[in-house]
Amino acid sequence: MADGFPSVSQRDRRPESGSSAPLTGAPMTDHAELPPPRSGGRLDPLQILFWISVTVGVAAAGIAITAGPSVGQAGAVLLVLLAAAGMVLFFWMSRGAGRKHGAFPERGAIAASALHSGNREFALIEALDEAALITDASLSPLVGNQAYLEIAHATGVLGDSDRPPMLSRLFGADPMLSAPMFRLSKAAQLGQARREELPATGALSGRHARYEACVGPMPGGYVLWRLREMGAASEQSGQAEEGRQLFLDDSPVGFFAARADGTIVYMNRSLRAVLGLGDDPSLLRVKDFVKEDASRLVRRDRRGFGPSRSRITLKGIDGHETQASVLSFWPADDVDGAARTLVFFSDAEAPETPAVVRTDMTNADGGVFANAPFGMAVLDGIDPASAAVLDSNAALMEMTQGRATPSAPFADLFDASEGPSALAHRLRQAMNDPIEITLATTPPTAVHVHFARSPEGRGIAYVLNVSQQRELETRLAQSEKMREIGELAAGVAHDFNNLLTVVMQTCSTLLRRHPVGDADYPMLREISDHAVTAKELSEMLRAYARQQTFAREVFDVGDFIGSKQELIRRIMGASIPYEIRHGRDLPFVKVDKTQLERVLINLATNARDAMTPAGSPMPRDGKLTVRTSVITAEAARGLGHNPIEDGKYTLIEVEDTGGGIKPEHAAKIFRPYHSTKEAGKGTGLGLATSYGIIKQSGGYIFFTSKLGVGTTFRIFLPEYIPTQEELDEISAKERALLKPATKDVAGRGKILFVEDQTAVRRSIARNLKECGYEVEEAENGEEALEVMSRNPGAYDIIISDVSMPIMTGPEMLQEADPAYIGNAKVLFLSGYAPESFSHMLEQYPVHYMSKPVTMEQLVGRVKEILATAA
Description:
This is histidine kinase. This protein is of the alpha+beta class.
């Protein structure tokens, strides 16, 4: 035939596999009989049942009609039998003979039935000595010749159908044939002819064999499919391939073929023996047995200069090294995408030929070029903007992601987003001074380029990767930027707190003059509430800037968290259960209780929001677990948390069963103003504040999260070993908790109030005087010392701001003569304070309150301090 298939001829009929009866075919004539239907000409049982039902139904109808109205149940019998006949008719039309002639014919069934009933136009397919199948235009199988049916029967896909299966079903067990079958089907649908040489498969005959499949259009919209085995051609090809392999294996020189990525395609016996390898080197790469830059052996030279020659060192699996010379080349047709390399084991180098180009620079420079830790390239000219690459080392190939191949324009290695002329100008600057430029890689890589001339008049480019250095510089600049932002935020918070103090103190005065029921009371209450909200925002800024003044206390974390159960319950609400699990033998910690409580509140609030479904007003289907335990730094590193200093820590875990944190948010979770919540439902300062508080307390905070499972935040607080005095103080505080809290803010005593802001000083002094205290004012630390020198020991309590011009509050305390202070207690007020002030709170018996404060808070604290002194 024209397409290469065997010519039509008479062939012997083979018996069907697994059948005792022979399969005899029709004589090879134009009127050859087609294979009978799979039903063997027997009636379908549903057809018999249908005709019996119809006969009985018609008889019952006749009886009912002739008997007249005197027959009582005849009508019911008639209806039942007619319904039965109708059901059988329905099944008959949808199955059985109905598939051919009914109202619901199977796709292609009518055409196939017509072929079997006397249409002999496709009888010639029996004359083909290969398997053949005819389908309609929609690829529904119609008829197959005897050879095709035998293959279908042998593969077990023939079944009980009257029609043969599609060709693709014959190879259903071999996924390697899916792609060729798809291409053949696509060509058949488009009315095109196509031939495919299928990969070797054992799906048909049980032994690996290759087949050729062909598809082509026929008149009338039909499609002819043919399949033949290529055993003879395959055997001839295999013999030729075996002869070539035998020749290469017996060659006295080594030979291997490798792809561009270094994967070995073939290696002859001589080279395997030198390396001590077995018969299957397919898992090797060139770099596994070549000591030098292995990529040079499989690098394609696009200049077409022929094979390249170089000296290499072979590494055996036993560690033995062998010197060798190699010739590497790519075949002209490049049928398999693999480079060929001849390996000469003798000390004598391979003979020089005009077509061989020396590219081995490792001998000339002692290996500096190939083994340099930075990129190097030899150019064919002294102008880096127009020169091409003659050779490059492994470092530059890796740096450029394989683009620095021979004959590649040197300028193409770099980013040209600013235009070719700008790039050329930048490269020419490297002839005088080193430049920083970006490689055209993904992602872009920052490099320094140095350019020099060789004695032969060629250009030599040195390329240093500085991307890590630039990343570190960027991080340092970002760190400095954030530190400056933190200082700015702390300064703004300080001044803002002074303003809030005036607002809150004045509002307290007006609320006393306009109590509940007054027309102005709601507006004053609203001002007071917003001032408290502004105070919370200010405290978040100070916490993020890590410039809060911490009043650190020594306490047990288990007792502290146990006392916050009611607070956590109010945050989570009634719909989310929570559990607190206390660890044993928890060490003491020394942190600010108020700040740690703020962290717990923030984490519990975030957990509640994470367990609240989108669009739902309240959380559900979740659980919060708070655990405490003892852990070492080594165990923390085992959980993947780094860096963390060596030592023993108290661990607080806050675990929720929410939706988890998405990977794109994980790296930004502690950044200020980064929020995963909807707009208007979060400030983005919560976790940034928590991070600042824990870090300023000397601890660490990490988290782990899994989408759809939940998130666990872990707080590591360093162990603190208290002194005996601190243990006694802890016991005294516990006893003091049993006393009822002071509610009456009225009191008596003499107060020295030091504050540089006039508005703040006047508002606080006015409220203190209204509560019954005698107040004397000072504008700064020096003035306060003068006041105390005139009245030494005359004050019951000294209230001072921390940050003031001329002399700060702590400096005033240190400069004051003890006689000036006498028995007076000291209370510091500040919006923020230097870090050294936190240490002063631990060294001196002073008290501290954070601005802004309301009148009730300040007067209540004053009365508490005076009561303790009494």
